[in-house]
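Tutorial, part two.
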Amino acid sequence: KKTNYLWGYAQAALSAIGFGIMGVIGVMAYQEGFSTADLLSWRFGIASIILIFISLNRGLFKKLSPKKTLICLLMGIIGYTGMTLLFFNSIKYIEVGLTTVLLYTYPIFVLTISRFTDKNKINLHQLFLVIIAFIGLFFAIDLGSENINWIGIILGISTAIWYSIYLTIGEKIIKDIDPIFVSTFVSIGAFVSYFFIAIYSGGLIITSSKMGWISVLTLAIFSTVFAIVLLFQSIEKIGAVKASLISNLEPVTAVILGLIFLSETLSISQFFGMVIILISITLLITANKKVKII
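Running the prediction step on this input gives:
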């Protein structure tokens, strides 16, 4: 049991790293000539094929329900497409690490939305942490800098808001559905969206660049399939709260890899702000027994 528990922590960490490399791989793919729609069409297309085989192996299609399938497809077509579109456009304007940290402010917005949708009261402890997180956000944006790209910042914060709405709605409509089944059809839905966007934008690019294909396959296999499967396996072993806390490795991974592979810069103010955000979000998660992960 102890070994199983430790493996759960390892799976959560590997999942976070898988998600954390996503932004860096995205920038590398852009450098090879991919557009956002092309890149994400290939990502979700390849990931969908692999997830279908995993679902078949688990016998999940035997429980196939037209209603549940349609719900998951719509979550991909509308929800996940919107979130990834905002994220992958944000990294065109600002650092990958900053975009990822901005995304990780989503628990603040989940908490705020639940205040109105579920009438959950925000206590003083939670309110204090939200205020601290927003202070950290101002430092992370580095308002004193003359080179602030507000388009990237707005897209990054919008990613967090969109993701929080996606999680809040998703929690209500996909109860009792296997998470791998959900991930499979969300990926298929996202692929459908991006495929048509790519076609409408001039056609799906088939690159001859080896680095381009390495980027696409890494994004599809490691940052999508492996990251999703490992996350849900870790939740089964250590629970959602602990898994979500370890997922804070994702923005840390993004920041470090951005500095190493993309020569991104990080000011003292930004570093300080990112640390404040991650600490306040960690405390906010531990203060809530119920954590939403989809």
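The chain has a mean pLDDT of 88. In part three we will examine how such features are distributed along the chain.
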